[in-house]
Every structure is written in C-alpha cells, then in structure tokens.
Write a structure and sequence with these properties.
It is built from 5 helices and no strands. By secondary structure, the protein is mostly helical. The protein has a domain of 161 residues.
Length: 236
C-alpha cells in the first residue's frame, strides 16, 4: 500500500528526530548534577531504543528489501514496546512536572525556567510519539489479522511489500484458473457420405446367401442389390 508506506516513513522519521531531541534533553538534565529522578533515566533509555529502532527500520527498509528486520511480525512488537515506553516516559515526566512546577514555567530564575521547559518538551514529545506509534501499530495489526482471516499470510512481509487488500494465493488460483468449456449434451447429427455414382438411400451390394422379402416387392436372393421400397422418383 503506497499511502501506508509513506505514513510509515514519516512516522519513523519523526520518531528518529524526537528520540534525538529527548536524548539531548535528558542527557542535559542528568549532567546538571543534583538529584537524579526516575523520568530522566526512563527518558534516556526510551530515546536510545527509539533511536536504534527507527534508524534500523529506515536504513534496512531502504537498502535491503525482504530483510527479516522489516517483517511485520518483528516490526509491530518492537514499535509496540516503544510506544509503551514512550507513554510511560510521558506519564512519569508529567507527574514530575505537576509536582515541582505546577502548570507554568514562568519563573524568575533563568536556570529553573530552562529546566522546566526541558521537562515540558520531553513530556510533549513522549506523548505525541506514543499516540502516533499506537495508532500505526493498531492499524497495521488490524489489517494483518484481517488478511490472515482470508487466508493471506502477511506476517513475514514488510509493510511496504504487503498487499493487505489482495486475495490469498489459493483464492487467486481459483479465480484466475480458466474454466473448461461446457460441452453440448446433444450429440451432433452425422452427415451421410455417398460414394461416386451411388444413389441416395441405396445399399451397397453385398454378397450373401440369404433371402430377403420386402412387402409388395419381388423376392430377392443373395447376391442381388437390396433397395428399400420407396416411390419411383425420376432422377434428373
């Protein structure tokens, strides 16, 4: 599917960019010293997984067709794990933000305001990434299961190669197989063949030793030509 392949490319590109941004922000928060909070380590781990997964899917899908990494059976579980981690990161970050900063980042101190805005950016990107991945994986999983129910196994194909709306191989063979011609139940009428000089409806002379008598005709013995009793029709 052309549009689904384009959506996959856009989604993986967005995940790559957002993972890079979250990786930089969480690294900056961890390098600032002081206490280390749970959301910082979770954001760092999730960004590393997202960076590696999206980069692998993009490069392998572009450079090598039919690789096992791009199979739906491999891609969907990894992206499902990624959106779960992204959602957990977003929830942990939102909890931290509400507890320490409330609802706004308008502070007098520049350092505190910068930290607040970095936390808010991690929260927003994590929520967006989680919901986009959730929608994509749910849609692909639904189409794959629907195709499987019709006998079309797509688990070992990539999203760019799979035909989610096509027929199964067995059904396609039945549809495309030429149907045999229906023979007529009525046997064709044979065409009589006459030899040269032979009158229509006459019998060839046959030498025999029997006697045949037709009603109203003289007795005919073996060796004579037998003709049916028919009206005399002049031959033109």
């Amino acid at each position: 599917m052309k549009y689904l392949s384009l959506a996959r490319f856009v989604l993986l590109t967005f995940c790559l960019i957002s993972s890079l941004i979250i990786l930089g922000l969480s690294g900056n928060l961890l390098s600032g010293g002081g206490d280390v909070f749970d959301f910082e380590g979770l954001a760092l781990a999730t960004s590393l997984i997202g960076l590696g997964a999206s980069l692998t899917f993009l490069l392998v899908g572009t450079l090598r067709k039919g690789a096992w990494v791009n199979m739906i059976a491999v891609e969907v579980p990894i992206l499902t794990l990624l959106w779960i981690l992204s959602l957990a990161t977003a929830g942990s970050t939102a909890s931290f933000f509400m507890f320490f900063f409330g609802t706004t980042c308008d502070f007098i101190g520049n350092n505190t305001e910068q930290v607040c805005r970095e936390v808010l950016a991690i929260e927003g990107l994590s929520f967006v990434t989680a919901f986009l991945l959730l929608g994509y994986t749910a849609f692909v999983l639904t189409l794959t299961i629907r195709a499987q129910s019709r006998g079309n196994n797509l688990w070992k194909l990539s999203v760019t190669e799979a035909d989610f709306w096509g027929l199964s191989p067995a059904t396609a063979d039945v549809v495309l197989q030429p149907q045999p011609a229906i023979m007529s139940a009525v046997a064709p009428t044979p065409t009589p063949v006459f030899s040269v000089g032979q009158e229509p409806y006459s019998y060839s002379p046959v030498a025999n030793n029997y006697t045949t008598t037709y009603p109203g005709s003289p007795q005919v013995t073996g060796g004579a030509q037998m003709q049916p009793n028919r009206p005399n029709v002049p031959i033109v």
